[in-house]
Amino acid sequence: MSVSLLWAVDVCGRVYRLSTGGQQWEQCRDAQLEFKRVTAATQCCWAIACDHNIYLNVHASDLSIRYQEEAYENQRWNPVDGFSERLLPSDRWQWSDVTGLVHQPLDGFQLPSQGWEWEADWYVDGNFEAEPTEKGGWTYAMDFPATYTKDKKWNSCVRRRRWLRYRRYKARDSWAKIPSEQTALPDPVSDISCGGWEISEEPRGRLSLWAVSLQGKVWYREGIEHHNPEGSSWTEVPVPGEVVQISCGPGDLVWAALWEGQLIVREGVSRDCPIGNSWTVVDSPSTEVGATHVAVGVNVVWAVTKDNKVWFRRGVNSHNPCGSGWIGMVGEMIMVNVGLNDQVWALGSEERGVYHRQGVTASELSGKAWRAVSVPRDTERSQSSASTSSLHSAGCFFTGEVRGQSATSDVDSSDTERERVAAAGGPTTSPAPDALVVDPAPDHAPNQPPLADTPPQPRSFPKVTSDSFISELISDRGAETGGSAAGLPTQEEEPLPGDGGKPSSPAPALPSSQSRGPLWSNVDLEETQCPPEPGASEGASCADTCSLSSVVTYSLAPEEEPYGEDGPPMWAWVSGGGCAVDSHSQLNWFTCPGIAASLAQSFQNMSLSVSPGQTALWHQQILEQLGQRSKREMENFRHYEQAVEQSVWVKKGTMQWWRDWKPHKWVDVRFALEQFSGTEGNKDGILFLYYNYNEEKKYLHAFVNEVTILVPVLNDAKHTFAIYTAERTKQRWPIRLAASTELEMHDWLALLSVSCCDSRGIQGPPSKQAIWSVTCKGDVFVSEPGPALEALPYPTPCEQMFWRHVGGHLRLVECNSVGVVWGIGYDHTAWVHTGGYGGGIFQGLASSTDNIYAQTDVKSVYIYENQRWNPVTGYTNRGLPTDRYMWSDASGLHECTKAHTTPPSPHWTWVSDWAVDYGVSEGTDREGWQYAADFPASYHGYKTLKDFVRRRRWARKCKLTTTGPWQEVPPIALSDVSILPCAAQSSVEVVPLWAISNKGDVLCRLGVTTLTPAGSSWLHVGTDQAFKSISIGGASQVWAIARDGSAFYRGAVSTETPAGECWYHIPSPPKQKLKQVSVGRTSICAVDENGNLWYRQGVIPSYPQGSSWEHVSDNVRKVSVGPLDQVWIIADKVQGSHSVSCGTVCHRLGVQPLDPKGQSWDYGIGGGWDHVSVRGNSMDPPRLRLPSLMDQSLPAQGIPNPAHNLEGANGSAGGC
């Protein structure tokens, strides 16, 4: 889980934030003003300062916030001047917006606030509809407005070109004042609340900000989005009364508290109307006292009344925002706040501490109990650290001697010594640890000889245990000496009446919890052996005989709290809107770390100095003792016979099998795995499948070493998995089995996977040369390639490759030959491979014990609502008999309703409700509909007279939680990633890695090495438009595809300039829009939206952009070009002997320097595959030379030649 923040304001107006990965409140040092309230979101935090102005703090990120300003220059042709700035009176402005109605001169653009800065000057956009324009960037038309083209025609009377300029938001991690404009708030602000980022799948970064003025008016901030975090203007929202406080949830819930104690609910909040349309009054939870505070989440509402009672509103959801009734909760709070995942935060009414509601889940929204957040502030911890560090200045020194263990404990020794001294008439003091001896203090008593003349005392160390050593440290004296360390407080006990002037019995003084600052106790480490003088009082004797050198430590009094001089923090406001925690989050906020940290630091400072020689001696002695013990135990078993080396192991079970012949159906079978091991330790096995056919018992069998892959198959009704062999891969018809339970299926998959790996001798994590692939269900597989996989002219067939399952769940994986592997999930989260293997369903021997981490993924399930138009009722759910289902999947062949649509598998759980998806690529209208002439056809987002059918897509999110050898790379969400494919013997130190964010920004990862594959930070690379695919190849060639289908080449990319200098627009294939690109050592291949594979011709070092595109194949989904220019694809519609498969891994044969496009395809595993990456396979293949009849110098069989170096033919890989 990525790190998120909890925000709070103390009573002094200081703003603090607490990280989910930290253990202390960090103060926002840049705040020059005192603040009253804050409201946080994931990416920013809003606040009200004491000057009643609103401030914004946008979190720092490697991805910059950029806004594109555009203006159009318009010209008209005349016979005298040609194209000129002289326009007709009825024409548009010379400088205008895209519509021509708004006058926009270049010098009229101003920065909206001081938080922005210009990136560069204005420049002409040279791209038009995915094609480069002619020099000057002009597009031509017959008149204003009309359809523009990049080519000038004889009737082109007008022309225009677009000018662009970018501004960047620079006020990151600092408080920026919201600028004042004509629509500024007329009244000072008393409360604010932000939310609304989950309203019907709003674009990421769009927020709703509500404000309350001192006069009780409500205002709404317009235009807040990712590219404009400050918003644009304020709009007043009428209210039925005087509002004192307001709360906005992540969804469409908005509640407010009135001055009279009632609550009001905003209704009609939607994606098209985020401001809502009306208010509904809700009575206070208590009839006696009114409500003063309210907080809302996605499906919850909490309130606080004037008597500090906390209330929970039941029955709240998007369809019923008012809820049904109130439930009183335990505890008294002054305010509550609902954050992400409906988690609740509150401030106590007495001590003003921060509390978190434990046990809040989707099934139990009210939670179980309040738990205090007990962590110090950064100023307090620094004071604690400074106090503990004073140990070094107190004269604490140690020697390297080790003392033997005493017969009795140190506590008993202390008690015995105390009794002995008391019996001898000596002073009764708390004994110092007799094992810790330090240099005496320079001060001494007047009647005592100088310490310089005192013979040195022996120094030794105690046996450090958890009880004795701490007991010695916390023992105090009954009366303090007069020569305490400078600056430390001393305590003097006065005799009680009737004691004859004698002090009371010594006891450790427990400091009061009301005291401020760190609490101290003096622990003497040495006691002088000088006898007390006769006639001296016991108190004086104690002062004379005790050593004056002490160690300062923290007292272990239970009342002590880890706060500094200011005492426990008193908070005034808390906001958890940006704190991503749930009931399963592991947080270190609820255990008071002050005492434990102080003790740990004290013991670390006083740790024993054990030399490396002593440690080595101890290790040697332990190993010798273990060796002698092993010999003694083995002597008793020498007369036994040697164990049998060859063994047979069988596992049986009952399953269902999808039989091979028609009619295909599930039949009950008995399934058995027989595994045996040979005398040399090699293992193999056989799979048996017993079934009945026409009352005759028959069986199928497959050798374990012939199994090429085991794939779990997602089925709504059964727990299914498939077994592929080389022959069944050709047929596109695996052995499909169904287990009775999910656990049984996982057990069989794990067992069969281990057996297959044992039979092939494959153990441990994937190699650096491994080929990675991902199925359409998110399962990750790897295959270990052999040198003959790319051999010419007879490479290893693809259907014989063995694929094993790697834990985790991803959408795509990219790799290279130095071991750097990255993946991207369906929720656009970036993951890096840790070097482990297994996880998930693979446990024990099938998984590594380390480098396995928890992994989550979120994906959307889509269904379509279809309607047909008729003259009477318009668009309805009544279609023709030949029409598709009115609720269906994308193809329309399968019925999918909201009630009966389930998550992809039992591992997935719903995390949202059904909502209209407006993010369809073809566009939608305001209600999410797409229109077409008939089913199926080309859809568009607007209605015409010829559109008789329409559809809209509904989406619902589900979440998967698993484990695997992957670690998250926060915080930027990615859509594509590419790693430089290095050579086999590469000596590269920093591996170039490029990526595309889910917003289309181009990023370059810095600090990626074999030791730190996750890298250190992102470098943003500026672009004129959003991108969707990127690839980096040999000699640091970087190619990218924009969302409009155009191709770009990044120039001047090198080690010195990892981000390059500029983009070069590359024309796409005629009438095609590209969607993916892959770059090898010298080859560049791309796939268009129609499934065509293209090869870039004419790429040479002096002209890396190439000359033209050449068609290679069709029915291609994705392509991957390796470091040796090998080409692998995911193909659609591959015909087998039994069926046609979609999503098949294919290998291009015949690829060589003289024929880089290859000759034919070799079909491998499939279908159901969605991604493949061969960019880690850099093993040079052996080449076979076929003999000629005229060549008498070669034998008839032919001999394999050593690996041929292709550096000269294919060019250098630029150090990789």
The average pLDDT score comes to 79
Low-confidence stretches: 386-562, 1188-1216
Looking at how many chains there are and whether they match, the oligomeric state comes to: single chain
Span of the ends, CA to CA: 34 Å
Tell how many strands the DSSP assignment holds: 76
> What's the alpha carbon Rg, rounded to whole Å?
38 Å
Q: Helical stretch count? A: 9
Largest sheet: 7 strands, antiparallel
**Beta-strand proportion:** 25-35%
Q: Characterize the overall form.
A: globular
Can you characterise this structure?
The protein is mainly β. It contains 9 helices and 76 strands.
Fold topology:
Layout: E1 5-10, E2 15-19, E3 26-27, E4 35-40, E5 44-49, E6 54-58, E7 66-78, E8 82-84, E9 95-96, E10 116-118, E11 123-124, E12 127-128, E13 131-132, E14 139-141, E15 158-169, E16 175-177, E17 189-195, E18 208-213, E19 218-222, E20 233-237, E21 243-248, E22 254-258, E23 263-267, E24 278-282, E25 291-296, E26 301-305, E27 309-314, E28 325-338, E29 344-348, E30 354-358, E31 369-372, H1 378-389, H2 410-423, H3 468-474, E32 520-524, H4 538-545, E33 550-554, E34 571-575, H5 593-605, H6 612-635, E35 647-658, E36 666-677, E37 683-693, E38 696-703, E39 707-713, E40 719-725, H7 726-731, E41 735-739, H8 742-760, E42 771-775, E43 780-783, E44 803-806, E45 812-815, E46 821-824, E47 830-833, E48 853-870, E49 874-876, E50 887-888, E51 908-910, E52 915-916, E53 929-932, E54 949-964, E55 966-968, E56 974-979, E57 993-997, E58 1002-1006, E59 1017-1021, E60 1027-1033, E61 1037-1042, E62 1047-1051, E63 1062-1066, E64 1074-1079, E65 1084-1088, E66 1093-1097, E67 1108-1113, E68 1116-1121, E69 1127-1131, E70 1134-1135, E71 1140-1141, E72 1144-1149, ...
Antiparallel strand pairs: 1-2, 1-34, 2-3, 4-5, 5-6, 6-16, 7-8, 7-9, 7-15, 10-15, 11-15, 12-13, 14-15, 17-18, 18-19, 19-20, 21-22, 22-23, 23-24, 25-26, 26-27, 27-28, 28-29, 29-30, 30-31, 32-33, 35-36, 35-41, 36-37, 37-38, 39-40, 40-41, 42-43, 42-74, 43-44, 45-46, 46-47, 47-55, 48-49, 48-50, ...
